Amino acid sequence: MEGMESKAISRFIRKITIENLWIYVLTLLRDGPLYGYEIRDKIFERFRFKPGKITCYVVLYKLEREGLISSREVSEKSKGAPRRYYDITEKGLKELEIAKRLLQDLVNTIH
Questions:
Q1: How far apart are CA 51 and CA 67, in angstroms?
Q2: Which CATH number fits domain 7-110: 2.60.420.10, 3.40.630.30, 3.90.226.10, 1.10.10.10?
């Protein structure tokens, strides 16, 4: 049935995935630091959708500006350029908990 959804369902899927990518990013970072490409791959592995490369980095930059994540460069001796790793901050953990409660309340209300 995948790919056969209505326009309304397609819009809904986009709204709860790509347009709320920050929730998925913070959820992954709660488990430990990750670098950009790794985040994108893990979103696909865990949540079954793949955001665009640029979209993912735009969200990372916004989250960092808002203080929800922090980043640091790590040089890996066997690799070329250093990688930028992202970590969730205390503020990010609080925002994620608020978002989870809002989503749970919505599901409970709809149910």
A1: 22
A2: 1.10.10.10
